[in-house]
């Protein structure tokens, strides 16, 4: 069980750090409703995303892809990305190095 708080990041979206170390951070993003979004953004961290549950449409640079439970992918440093929730669920993201802005 994580001692980190659950933080709202948008309408029907929360973020919770699950574990962290200066070189790696694991974060759960929970999307509670169809249409909830992870707004387009970029960061210097390399990110991996694992779809624990739900369905999502991701934009990765110029590419769009739909993902569901068990899917995973890596987002390179600096690539603009975002998502739209198609079915409520949870994404588990890992960042290297740690996202200090999430602490």
TrEMBL record:
Residues 35-87 form the Cupin type-2 domain. Transmembrane segments: none annotated. It holds the Pfam family Cupin_2. This is Cupin domain-containing protein. It comes from Thalassococcus arenae.
